[in-house]
Amino acid sequence: MSRLYFPISVLLAVAAVVGYRLYPLLFILGLNGRVLEPLGNTDCITVPALPACEKIVLHAPTGVLYLACSSPESRAHWTPAINRLNASGPADDDFLATYAPHTGAIVRLVIEPPLPGGLSVHGMDVVPSADDPRELFIYAVNHRRPADAPDAASKIGADSTIEVFKTSVGSAVLTHLHTVRDPAIITPNDIAGSSNGREFFFTNDHASKTSLLRHLAVLGLQAGSVGYCDVHTGCKIAIPSLQGANGIARAPNNDTIFVGSALHGGIYVLERQADNALLKTHTIATDRPLDNLSVDEEGVVWAATFPYGLTMLKHIVNATLLSPASAHAVVRNTGPGSFYGEKFRVEKVFEDNGTVARGTTSVVHDAVRRRLFLHGISAPHLTVCAL
Ligand SMILES: *[C@@H]1O[C@H](CO)[C@@H](O)[C@H](O)[C@H]1NC(C)=O
Ligand SMILES: CC(=O)N[C@H]1CO[C@H](CO)[C@@H](O)[C@@H]1O
């Protein structure tokens, strides 16, 4: 009896542990029986001249959008965040651009002087200068292909840097100021810049560029982090061990930083300390994994969310696959619930099966002009919706 009892209890324990690890996996992959509910997707236009823009940032005073774009073909070969490391894939023709929604004008920004190692974009931030708000600092992740050993890219990963540019409102020229390369910049994903053109926080989506453990991140065996850099004094890890660290955005107070988890869902709320370390004060729960974050003029956090994570992963390498998209708004709760610890309220504001907005990784809200912009790492077009 007890001899039989022992293996059964062991089996039950193993099943419980596997189940505990597996449920989040089903949730991440969107295999937990979620049904799509189209929302906010009827009054939209698409802009196919701007494909594969992983990150979009609104210049709130003018309503102009800044975009970090590529091509779906290039993303299929070279997307270090998901281990696509074929450095001899299509030549990198990544670019930064602006889009003026009121005229439809698109401008490809010219980098001066050109970057010797080329540009392979991912996350980005655009911040008006504290000295003169008509001047803008642009901070962009650059996943350079390794220059000395392009054949070894799949083993050593990308030679990732963060580039700092200066431009002015309405200008088509980006003046290159700094290339920041540092051991703390491991697998940079997204950036929250500052108004001095010198300091920024960024997420590392993993803890190594290439390794077996990376592939087991989904089981919690490898986490990302947030780093901090000052172009004069260097970089450091501001907070280690954040599962699925992905999009990063700064609250209007500048000291609260939000980081989205592309793995287990949820938004980490971090507070900046005097030494630029970050302290986690909250985690806002969400019902699905999420990606890039932005904060609008009213302090509402907007998140690109993934109804079906697995379809999303397949879509990055096969852009024609309809990957459904959703967006959520996170509002600071000032009602009675806040007293009991519900500091934030999460509301779904957009959902679509992938025809209007496909594989969305970045969502931006223009609170003044009531527009919602959606774009995705391998999406065929920008989507602009009236809200
Ligand atoms: C996608 O959803 C729209 C309604 O939002 C519907 O008209 C269309 O048929 C759907 N397409 C697919 C491929 O499911
Ligand atoms: C900055 C940025 O765009 N980050 C993420 C957006 O979404 C894609 C898809 O998951 C991620 O790979 C990016 O790292």
From TrEMBL:
Keywords: Calcium, Disulfide bond, Glycoprotein, Hydrolase, Metal-binding
Residues annotated to bind Ca(2+): 189-190, 246, 291-292
Disulfide bonds: 44-385
Location of the active site: 122
Keyword Metal-binding listed: yes
Domain of life: Eukaryota
One Pfam short name: Arylesterase
Cofactor: Ca(2+)
Glycosylation (residues): 292, 353
Cofactor note: Binds 2 calcium ions per subunit.
Modification after translation, per record: Glycosylated.
GO molecular function: arylesterase activity; metal ion binding
Homology family: Belongs to the paraoxonase family.
Protein name: Serum paraoxonase/arylesterase
